[in-house]
Write a structure and sequence with these properties.
The complex is a heterodimer.
Chain A (H helix, E strand, L loop, with lengths): L2 H16 L10 H11 L15 H19 L5 H17 L6 E8 L5 E8 L4 E9 L7 E9 L15 H4 L5 E2 L5 E8 L6 E5 L5 E2 L2 E4 L2 E7 L8 E5 L5 E6 L5
Antiparallel strand pairs in A: 1-2, 2-3, 3-4, 5-6, 6-10, 7-8, 7-11, 9-10, 11-12
Chain B lengths: L2 H21 L2 H17 L7 H19 L17 H11 L3 H12 L4 H8 L3 H18 L3
Helix pairs in contact in B: 1-2, 1-3, 1-5, 2-3, 4-7, 5-6, 5-7, 6-7
Classes of the chains: A alpha+beta, B mainly alpha.
Chain lengths: ~250, ~150
């Protein structure tokens, strides 16, 4: 292959990759600066780009091949968690992770008496995936309602010692439809080190303790219909005292 | 909408693409571009060709980033979730694995279609060095991709 031919292939490849960037910025200049100010002066201090991967389409097939993958892996031993595991395995493959990953499973009470199963997988510094399943009251098994994948969300945020701006990480994960007809959203991010529980504060000020915390990360599932009203998340110590609040998804 | 907002909207995409290709990370690229726009905004009204200034600022921003964040270079091959044609993905992966200077030279030469003289100007090196960087980069990509 000649230099010219290789150069042409490079040119073609770069132009193809370039098409994955939208033609226009996702926000106005003013909002971009506002977000920047909120998240710190240096971009490396808090990654806020989240990539949602194709998850609703993926969910459609999870009951088949994906379930088999999860079951065969042995990562999830109970039927109640198979769907969640399937989503995470699929997401890992989608993200083409090559490094060993850590996977955690969190169970939290959800709205309307439901039980939320939230899976979180991370790949060292490179990113993470979240998957959400909802188990309705009386149902034998949960149903996967959605999942999301992010890259580069791990950087420590200056505010992480007191609060975490959830919108840095999860502002595009809403819109999932649960078996009970409720839209759910998931916010996730780093939690202060002493955090035991996390609550979502609705637009009316009600605190819904629907989140779970594991190894410095929190995952919180909330009704998507309540997003966009300046919601906050609040972190609590095991003693119940508050560690502070941060803006939740949809507030930007 | 202000004149600067129009300029931002018109140039954001092209600059993000360029910065992404130069530094190998889209997220870092977006940050570099934002910084470049911030710097540009202050004297925007006085600039005759703000596009040229912006592009230079982005290239310089990436070069500065490369110098100061060597420790993060191992993340260059971090997964980025785009579904690409396999051949495109293969070439793109090969480009991302190149040493910084070679990748920068290839992007300027084959993405922006700059002349070797212009590549040298952007990289702040002699033309002969730019030519060598392009040649070695192309050779390295050729070795790594399916003929």
């Amino acid at each position: 292959m000649t230099d010219e031919r290789t150069g042409a292939r490079i040119s073609t490849a770069l132009r193809s990759v370039a098409q994955t960037v939208p033609e226009h910025p996702p926000t106005s200049w003013e909002l971009a600066c506002t977000q920047r100010a909120k998240w710190g002066p240096r971009p490396s201090s808090g990654r806020r780009t989240i990539r949602v991967v194709a998850v609703l389409a993926a969910c459609a097939v999870l009951g088949g091949a994906g379930t088999g993958i999860a079951a065969a892996s042995g990562a999830f031993s109970t039927s109640a968690e198979v769907a969640l595991g399937a989503a995470m395995h699929l997401l890992q493959r989608t993200a083409k992770w090559t490094e060993p990953t850590e996977m955690t499973r969190l169970v939290a009470p959800g709205p309307g008496g439901t039980t939320l199963l939230v899976g979180s997988a991370s790949s060292n510094s490179q990113g993470g995936c979240e998957a959400l399943a909802v188990k309705s009251p009386g149902a034998a098994t949960p149903q996967l309602v959605g999942a999301a994948c992010s890259v580069s969300f791990n950087s420590s945020h200056p505010a992480a010692t007191t609060s975490v701006p959830a919108s840095s990480y999860g502002n595009t994960t809403h819109g999932w439809i649960s078996p009970t007809g409720t839209d759910y959203a998931v916010s996730f991010g780093q939690a202060p080190s002493e955090t035991s529980t996390v609550a979502f504060i609705t637009s009316t000020g009600t605190k819904l303790v629907t989140g779970a915390v594991s190894e410095g990360w929190y995952v919180i599932a909330v009704p998507a219909s309540d997003l966009g009203h300046g919601n906050n998340v609040e972190f609590f110590r095991p003693t119940g005292s508050s560690l502070g609040t941060g803006p939740a998804v949809g507030t930007t | 909408m202000t004149q600067f907002e129009d300029f931002y909207r018109a140039n954001w995409s092209a600059m993000v693409r360029l910065a992404w290709f130069l530094c190998g990370s889209r997220q870092d690229g977006e940050d570099v571009v934002h910084d470049a726009f911030v710097r540009l905004e202050e004297g925007f009204d006085e600039l005759v060709v703000p596009e040229a200034y912006l592009r230079k600022a982005v290239v310089n921003g990436v070069l500065a980033l490369q110098r100061h964040r060597a420790v993060e270079r191992r993340h260059r091959s971090a997964p980025e979730i785009w579904h690409l044609d396999p051949e495109v993905e293969e070439v793109w992966a090969a480009v991302r694995q190149l040493p910084d200077r070679q990748r920068e030279a290839l992007v300027l030469r084959f993405y922006l279609d700059l002349s070797l003289e212009q590549v040298a100007d952007h990289l702040g090196c002699p033309v002969g060095t730019a030519k060598s960087l392009v040649h070695r980069g192309v050779a390295a990509v050729r070795r790594r991709v399916t003929p």
